[in-house]
Amino acid sequence: MVNPLTLTAKEIAQQVSSGSLSALDVVELYLDRIRRLNPKINAFITVAEEQARRAAEEVDKAVKKGFRGRLLGVPIAVKDVISTKGIETTCASKILRGYVPPYDATVVKRLKAEGAIVIGKTNMDEFAMGSSTELSAYGPTRNPWSLDRVTGGSSGGSGAATSARMAPTSLGSDTGGSVRCPASFCGIVGLKPTYGVVSRYGLISYACSLEQIGPMTVDVEDCALLMEVISGRDGFDSTLIDYEFRWSYEGVKGLRIAVPKEFFSEGTDERVLESVWRVIKLLESNGAVYEEVSLPLSRYALAAYYIIAMSEASSNLARYDGIRYGMPYDPSLPWHEAFSKVRGEGFGLEVKRRIILGTFALSAGYYGRYYLKALKLRAMIRDQVLSLLKRFDVIATPTTPFPPFKLGEKIEDPLSLYMADIDTVVANLAGVPAISIPAGLVDGLPVGAQFMANYCREDVLLTVAKCVQDETHFDKLVPGVAKA
Amino acid sequence: MARSELTITPELLDHLSNLAKLKLTEEEKRIFIRDLNRILEYFNVIDEVDTSGVDQVFHILGLTNTMREDEVGGEPLSQEQALSNAASKEEGYIKAPRMV
Fold first, then answer.
1. What is the largest CA-CA distance in chain A?
2. What is the pLDDT of residues B73-97, one digit of tens each?
3. Are A314 and B20 an interchain contact pair (Cβ–Cβ within 8 Å)?
4. What is the ipTM of this complex?
5. What is the residue extent of each domain of chain B?
6. Rounded to the nearest 10 degrees, what angle do helices A23-41 and A9-18 cross at?
7. Which of A107, A269, A458, B96 falls 20 to 30 Å from B54 in CA-CA distance?
8. Would residue A154 show up in a list of annotated catalytic residues for this protein?
9. pLDDT of residue A21
C-alpha cells in the first residue's frame, strides 16, 4: 500500500497512469485522512467528498480509454477564494455563504484538464485579508505542528492541509505574502509567481494589482509541476504577459545571492535569522556566492502595500450588495439601507476595517497623500529591487520576522498582525516572483527562508529550493499529528 | 490620542461608512476610531520619501491596453446558470431593491 506521508503528486500521477493505483483509491485515501485530521485542524471549509469521488471515477474511466495527464488522479486542496464550479466558494465570509460558482477559475480548469481532482476548499482569512487564518467566519485553522499556534495566512487552510498530508498539493493566493507566510509556518514550499503569469480569472478579487495564485506543496518538483500547469496566457485575464514556464535543475554553482541587511535587523527573531543564514551557508557550500547589501526603501514597503491593498479592496468589495449572489438583501428597505445592512452583517471586522481605510485613502482630499503617493513609492521600490537583481540572481530574506505565534496572541492589535507581512510585501509591490522554503524548526515550529528573483525567473527560485531540499530533506518533515 | 489630533473623527467615520455603504455598530465605531488612527499614524512614514517626479505605477510590468478579437470566448453561461445565485429574481431578471 502507498504511504501518503511520502507520496508526491508526481508519483500519484505516475501510478494512476500505469494502473497500479486508481484515482478513486487515491481520493479515498485522502478523504479518510481529512475525516480523521480535519476536526483537529479545521483546514477545510468544504470537503468536496461526492464531487471528488465522481471526478475520480471519471478520471479512472478516461484512463482506461487512454487519457493521460500530468496530474492524473492528484487531489488538490483549493483555497476558498478560487471559484470551483458546483462547489461552494465562500471566501471564508458570511456574505458569500451558500455561493456556488457556475464556472471554474482558469487555474482549476487547467488542473482538471490534467486529471487533477479538487478534494476540498480550504480555510483562509476572510477575503484573504489577514496573516494568521484566524479571521475566518468558519473558525481558525490550527497549525499541525502545534495545535495552539496559527498557520499563518491568509492561505492557512492550504498550508495546514498540505503539511498534514490531507492533500498532496494545494493552491493559495498571495496578495502580500498569503502563500509564503503559511508555507513558512506550516513547513512546506509556497511560490508566488511573477505578477501576470497565472490567470486571476475566477480568483475572487482583493487587490488585483498585487495578487497571484500560487502552488503550495511538500515537494519542490510538485511545485514546478503545478506551476507548469497553471501558468500561461488566458483570454479571460487581460493583465497577463507572455510566459512559458521552463525549469531543469542544474545545481546552484555560481548563483549570486543578495542578502539585504534591512531584513536581518533587530526586529526579527534571532532564531529565525539563524535558520535563514544556515540555508544561505548551505547554498554557499554548494557553490553559490553571497554578498550583504542594502534595500533601503524596503522600510516603506509595508505602509505602501497596505495603502494600495486597502484602496483596491474598498473598490473590489463594492460588488457585495446582496443582489446577484451571497447573503440576500432586505427587500423592505430602500436601496442604500439595504446595501449597508447586508454588508454590515455579512463582512467581518477586519474586512470592514480595510474597506473603511481604503475608502478613506481614495477619498477626495486624501487620494494624493495616500493612494497616489503609495503608487509612486511602489515604482521606486520596484526599481530598487530590479537594480539589485541586475547584480544578483536572488535576494534572500526570512519569510516572516517570527515563528508561528499562538492563536489569539495578535488578534486584538491589527498593526502587530500586519507586521507578519513585513518581509513578503516587497515581492508583491515589485511584481517579482518569490518562494518560501522550509528553513528548519525553531522549538519544534517551522520557519521559512524567502528568495526573490527577477521577472519570470521562477526557475531560479525552484533551483534554490531543490538544492536545499536535496541537502536537508525538508520534504520528509511531517508534523506529529499527521503521523497518527 | 486627543480628539483634535485624530485624522479619522467620529464624523469622518460616519461619512466613510456612508460612502462605502457599510453599516457599523457602535462597538465597531469605537474600535475603528482607536485602530484606524493608529494605523494611519504608521502609514504616515511614507511622508519621509520624496516622490516628486516619480510616475505612479498601475500595472507593475507596464502593460497597457491588451486587445483581443471581439468574440465570445469559451462556453457562455445560460441565463439560468448566470442567475443561479441571486436570491430574488423574476421572469429571468434579477430583482434589485427599490431605487426611488
1. 70
2. 778 899 999 999 999 999 999 999 9
3. yes
4. 0.95
5. 1-50
6. 150
7. A458
8. yes
9. 96
Catalytic entry in A154, A173, A298, A436: A154
DSSP structural state of residue B48: G
pLDDT given for residue B74 in this prediction:
79
Look up A79 and say whether it is catalytic.
yes
A455 CB-near residues (< 8 Å, 6+ apart)? A194, A431, A432, A433, B61
For residue A155, the tally of other CB atoms under 10 A from its CB is: 39
Q: Does A95 touch chain B (CB under 8 A)?
A: no
**pLDDT for residue A275:** 98
The crossing angle, in degrees rounded to 10, of helices A220-230 and A106-113 is 110
The answer to whether the Cβ–Cβ distance between A328 and B87 falls below 8 Å is: yes
Residues of chain B neighbouring A312 (CB-CB closer than 8 A): none
Q: Which chain A residue lies closest to B27 (C-alpha atoms)?
A: A349
Q: Is the pLDDT of residue A1 over 70?
A: no
pTM reported for the whole predicted model: 0.97
Q: Does A360 touch chain B (CB under 8 A)?
A: yes
Matching CATH number, A4-254+458-483, of 3.20.20.150, 1.20.1250.20, 3.30.750.24, 3.90.1300.10: 3.90.1300.10
How far is the alpha carbon of A375 from chain B, nearest alpha carbon, in Å?
Answer: 5
Alpha-carbon gap, residue B55 to A299, rounded angstroms? 20
CATH of B1-50, one of 1.10.150, 1.10.20, 3.30.420, 3.30.300: 1.10.20
Q: Is residue A17 flagged as an active site residue?
A: no
Catalytic residue chosen out of the listed positions A10, A22, A79, A93: A79
